[in-house]
Amino acid sequence: MTSRTPDARPAAPPQPVDVATVLHGLDAIFAAHDGPTRAAPYLRAALADAERQGDDGARLTLLNELVGLYRSQSLHDDAVTASRTALTLVESMGLTGTDAHATTLINGATAMRAAGRPDDARTLYSRALSAADTAFGPTDRRLAGLHNNLSILCSERQDHAQALAELRAAMSILEASSVDPERDLDIATTCTNLALVSFTLGQHEDAARYVDRSLAIYQDGGHEDDPHYASAVAGHAEVCFRVGRYADAVTMYRQALAIITECYGTDNDYYVVTAENLAEAEAAAAAGAAPGTGPSDRPSTPTPVPATAPSGPAAAVPTTRTPDSGLDLARAYWEEHGRPMLEFRYPAYRGRIAAGLVGHGSECYGFDDAISRDHDTGPGFCLWLTAEDHAEIGAALQADYDALPRTFRGVDRTPTTPRAHGAGRRVGVFEIGDFYEQITGYRQAPTTAHEWLMLDEATLAAATDGAVFADPHGAFSAVRGSFTRMPRDVRWALVSRRLGMISQAGQYNVPRMLDRGDGEAAWLSVGELTRAVASLVFLLTGPSSAGYLPYYKWHFAALRRLSRRMGSSLPGAVDDLSEILRLASAACFGPGSPDARARLEERIERLCATIAAELQSRGLSSSSETFLERQREHVAAHITDPWLKAL
């Protein structure tokens, strides 16, 4: 009889690796800006675990993660080795010809290109195109990413005509698949790439047109937190450099360099190349060089556009991502549960139903964080129907929406406050007119100046924030868009009002209240000044581009985000206001610096001078007067409505 030691037990069966949890941990590493030091060891440990467990699907996902990560850190040999291992695994798993195969080929080709192996890269890109023809649909955005990345290889080989053809193919796919082309970051990136190649081919008018479209999308879409924003900004900076916009190039290269440093560190090709380009742009700006006089050997390489990962256990996922925000969670919940529900239960109506997340709540502004998730949060989205469709299927659709899973990605869908229930609910099924009437009191945008003035900016912000995930019919987007088109006369009338309040509260009443020793009244005056300046920044930038100033607690978050966008008005105002509030605390209540009052009044005057200069640059005034009450008549001259002009 064979003896067995007391501690010996049958081996436990292999357990699949929880890839979602692994990727969530990777998200946390990047969110803590520890990617340069912790991401690679973390992924290697997870990969080793997947190998021990014999989980090939997890191995493939993690290998593709490592390919992208190594490439971003300029560990090109490691990236090539990981991509070859991933391709061998694809074949052994019998996945040849699938979307996972196509995406792995794209990742491998891009790694080869970055490693300076153009022939190997071309071979893999050709194989990827063949696989994509079978695995991807004609409007699949991964196919656009493939064409975009292939254009880089063509540019590096000096085949600029073919690079242009690849980019046009990518643009055609993106425009056909985009829910909102005017806010689509991939379209903006492709426009930047098209501008670079067009400029190289001497097609300067086309290049300028692509630059303008790309810039408009960045201004409109709020893409600063996109994981590929650094590459896109650097590409846009290069275009500005080539067309002689050196100051803009310097600003954007600095922004790109800061993101690269934060996410990837300084020991990589991205940092070195971007730092060199920044130095050249700074030199050109300082010298006042003429357009087109930059280094002649400067490569016109487009910005990479990564392939979107397919779903499933063998998915290849993008390397860099941020943790789920409320909008991310809502979009994923819609894609995984909402869209399939419509396709299965409402096939005759799915082409008429809009989906997204718009309205009240920090998640709609993109400002949600761990602190803001203590109430009325969780996976959820809105479904918007026309009045006719809502009458026919609204109740049934709401019942089906309510039956969707209550928990998604570990987050419960459980409202906790009364305003999230009943008529005040934020997600679910809505008739379009009812939805907007609930937020604004109007079923569609006002038609008279008086009605527009009755709507405060926070209400308009709630009506136009968030994101539309799908709107094949276009009815919802038409109403939403109408609220962004504030009439010009109304806008200038509000600008005039804000100038009056800045002058009255900041330039006139702050010193008068301090003279009286009434610190509380002076503090309230500073508050009025702050609100008026914040509103002015959004109004001058324009609602169709910047949206509207949101609910008061998000004023500074919104200003900080807007100040980072190219083309925004008064980008330094947020820093001025922060300093004004800091100085006001000491000047109004003390004890503090003995010269706090003088510095406070000086900072207010400096801000007002900047505002006056902005009015001049925008053609709203011909006066350099810094007492802003006197600027109002110049702005009023641009108003045609007699009633508004008289306000």
Automatic annotation (TrEMBL):
Alphabetically ordered keywords of this record: Coiled coil, Cytoplasm, Cytoskeleton, Microtubule, Motor protein, Repeat, TPR repeat
Bias (Low complexity): 308-320
InterPro entries tied to this protein: DUF4037 (IPR025117), Kinesin_light (IPR002151), TPR-like_helical_dom_sf (IPR011990), TPR_rpt (IPR019734)
UniProt record, GO biological process: microtubule-based movement
Superkingdom field: Bacteria
Region (Disordered): 286-324
UniProt name for this protein: DUF4037 domain-containing protein
Organism: Sanguibacter biliveldensis
